[in-house]
């Protein structure tokens, strides 16, 4: 596996929340993260049926468009009582244009409809790296927690206001970003990537 040499890295994402978190997480390692959003790259359709498949598809597309090593993130919320939904469809549950208040309400109403008292859930993040020589790698991170209702906090993005990580009292939407970065699914995947690819 080639090392990821600190320098320019394309973040193959159009999600502003991810761009900001990936910049925070990679800047300390000497990377200049420039996103597909900032570069105006086309957003590929997520046609695979797994986080890893979609992550690889996004990394490959950005690498091909720029000729630079590309890092993508495919992630989502997996709710135990909903059989792992919304999972890879987490962004799509918010509709177009995306409305995460609506998506959080949908999770809550489906949870109620399920009749289950189990409010456990996890966030999953799969990071994929695609190098111009065709090499590819994927790293996965998870954080387990509980869903709360109503939503709390204005920070973070997506479903953060309804997710409380195990052992915490604040939602990811209430937490200082540094604290989310110390325990999140994304931070855990970055840690695995760091251990494998960075000197
Ligand atoms: O509350 C959250 N805190 C997080 O830390 C988090 N990480 C992922 N998610 C949700 O999962 C979807 C991923 O879908 P996704 O991987 O297809 O990303 P996306 O479509 O938003 O951007 P892109 O990277 O594909 O361009 C996102 O939109 C979010 O709803 C999160 N929600
Ligand atoms: Mg997406």
Q: What can you tell me about this protein's structure?
A:
- The protein contains six helices and six strands; from the N terminus they run βαβααβαβββαα.
- With 199 residues, the chain is α/β, with parallel strands linked by helices.
- It has one domain: Maf protein.
- A six-stranded mixed beta sheet has the order 2-1-3-4-5-6.
- The protein starts with 7 loop residues before the first strand and ends with a helix.
- The structure holds the ligand O=c1[nH]c(=O)c2ncn([C@@H]3O[C@H](COP(=O)(O)OP(=O)(O)OP(=O)(O)O)[C@@H](O)[C@H]3O)c2[nH]1 and magnesium ion.
Give the structure's gist in a few sentences.
The chain is α/β, with parallel strands linked by helices. It has one domain (8-197): Maf protein, CATH 3.90.950.10.
The rough form would be described as globular
Strand order of the biggest β-sheet? 2-1-3-4-5-6
Number of beta strands: 6
Number of domains: 1
Question: What is the CATH topology assignment?
Answer: Maf protein
- Mean pLDDT across every amino acid position: 96
CATH architectural grouping: Alpha-Beta Complex
Main beta sheet = 6 strands, mixed
Give helix and strand order, one letter per element, not per position. Answer: EHEHHEHEEEHH
Strand content bin: 15-25%
- Termini, distance in Å? 12 Å
The CATH class is Alpha Beta
Alpha plus pi helix count: 6
Provide the low-confidence segments as ranges. Answer: none
Q: In angstroms, what is the radius of gyration? A: 17 Å
Quaternary state reads: single chain
Give me the secondary-structure topology.
Blueprint (H helix, E strand, L loop, with lengths): L7 E4 L4 H11 L5 E4 H4 L11 H16 L3 E10 L20 H15 L5 E11 L5 E12 L15 E3 L11 H7 L1 H13 L2
Parallel strand pairs: 1-2, 1-3
Antiparallel strand pairs: 3-4, 4-5, 5-6
This protein binds the ligand O=c1[nH]c(=O)c2ncn([C@@H]3O[C@H](COP(=O)(O)OP(=O)(O)OP(=O)(O)O)[C@@H](O)[C@H]3O)c2[nH]1 and magnesium ion.
The site of the ligand O=c1[nH]c(=O)c2ncn([C@@H]3O[C@H](COP(=O)(O)OP(=O)(O)OP(=O)(O)O)[C@@H](O)[C@H]3O)c2[nH]1 has 23 residues, from strand 3.
């Amino acid at each position: 596996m080639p090392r990821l040499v600190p320098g320019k890295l394309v973040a193959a994402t159009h999600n502003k929340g991810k761009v900001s978190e990936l910049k925070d997480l990679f800047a300390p390692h000497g990377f200049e993260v420039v996103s597909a959003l900032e570069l105006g790259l086309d957003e590929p359709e997520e046609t695979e049926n797994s986080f890893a498949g979609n992550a690889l598809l996004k990394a490959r597309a950005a690498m091909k468009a720029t000729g630079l090593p590309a890092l993508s993130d495919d992630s989502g919320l997996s709710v135990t009582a909903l059989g792992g939904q919304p999972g890879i469809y987490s962004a799509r549950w918010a509709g177009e244009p995306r409305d995460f208040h609506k998506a959080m309400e949908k999770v809550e109403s489906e949870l109620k409809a399920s009749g289950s008292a189990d409010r456990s859930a996890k966030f999953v993040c799969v990071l994929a790296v695609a190098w111009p020589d065709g090499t590819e790698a994927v790293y996965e991170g998870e954080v387990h927690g509980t869903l709360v209702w109503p939503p709390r906090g204005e920070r973070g993005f997506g479903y953060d206001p309804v997710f409380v990580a195990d052992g915490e009292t604040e939602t990811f939407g209430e937490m200082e970003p540094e604290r989310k970065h110390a325990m999140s699914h994304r931070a855990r995947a970055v840690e695995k990537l760091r251990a494998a690819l960075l000197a």
